[in-house]
Design a protein that fits this description.
With about 260 residues, the chain is mainly alpha-helical. A two-stranded antiparallel sheet has the order 1-2. A hairpin with a 2-residue loop joins strand 1 and strand 2. Helix 2 packs antiparallel against helix 3. It starts with 13 loop residues before the first helix and ends with a helix. The model has no long low-confidence stretch (mean pLDDT about 90).
């Protein structure tokens, strides 16, 4: 038996898992997309045009334009998180879908990789919809704004991996409220979504710069504005590190939970 700490052994069999989730989702695609977009769009337009009228420009751009980059990244984060927490937990523990899949010529790692890829796909769908709406509002500079699409995929992979790690520890749906409330909500406040982090105390800025959402916001905001990110390679490297390390952690924890 392989050690729980062995690196994941990946194969293209995960595509079958991804396809299974896609075929199920396709029947409910429109309600699913609307559910992911309703809250962020209400807040984006409410704050962007409402509070923006009082604030004026932020960082040389309109407040709506400033928020657009932050909400593109944060909507992607939440779409990947919900899929890798609530939906994945349902398939793993409640519906026993994972158990059924591994009775086919599949491994637990194939299932995890399929979940990882599917959560990133859901995040991509949500991110592309936000990009289209921001572009229609005149706050995306093309063609550079199109580079946000692969960035959205990377953000999705990073947060999907983290979500699967939490999923492996969950004792029930209520467990996820700790992760959402104690980690994701403060992260959204500290990552430059609503205001420039330069206004925060220096120790808080340093802490914020270790968070994956901060690096996603830095990339999406710059690219939507038609500017190459000042530290783009660093931002990409941090997101990739979270994605890979998070998936490894998810693999270790899930093996420990299900392969006792």
């Amino acid at each position: 038996m392989r050690s729980n700490f062995a690196p994941p052994s990946l194969s293209l069999r995960f595509v079958a898992v991804w396809r299974r989730h896609f075929l199920v989702w396709r029947k409910l695609a429109i309600p699913s997309i609307l559910g992911n977009l309703a809250d962020p769009l209400i807040v984006l337009f409410g704050l962007g045009y409402g509070l923006g009228a009082a604030l004026g420009d932020v960082g040389g751009i309109s407040y709506f334009g400033f928020l657009s980059g932050g909400f593109l990244a944060s909507t992607t984060m939440y779409a990947a998180t919900f899929e890798s927490l609530f939906s994945a937990y349902s398939r793993m523990h409640v519906q026993k879908t994972w158990e059924a899949i591994v009775n086919a010529p599949m491994t637990l790692e194939d299932v995890l990789a399929g979940e990882w890829a599917w959560a990133a796909t859901k995040a991509l769908a949500a991110g592309v919809c936000i990009l289209a709406i921001v572009a229609a509002a005149g706050n995306a500079s093309f063609p550079l704004a199109l580079a946000t699409v692969p960035v959205v995929v990377l953000i999705g992979l990073a947060f999907a991996a983290l979500g699967l790690s939490v999923n492996a520890l969950a004792s029930g749906y209520d467990f996820f409220s700790y992760y959402m409330t104690l980690l994701l909500t403060p992260m959204m406040m500290l990552s430059g979504v609503f205001f420039p982090i330069a206004r925060l105390p220096e120790p808080v800025q340093a802490a914020a710069q270790t968070l994956p959402l901060y690096h996603g916001v830095e990339l999406t905001r710059s690219l939507l504005g038609g500017v190459l990110p000042a530290h783009g390679l660093v931002n990409l490297a941090v997101l990739a590190a979270y994605a890979l390390a998070g998936f490894y952690l998810a693999t270790v924890l899930t093996r420990r939970r299900l392969l006792k």
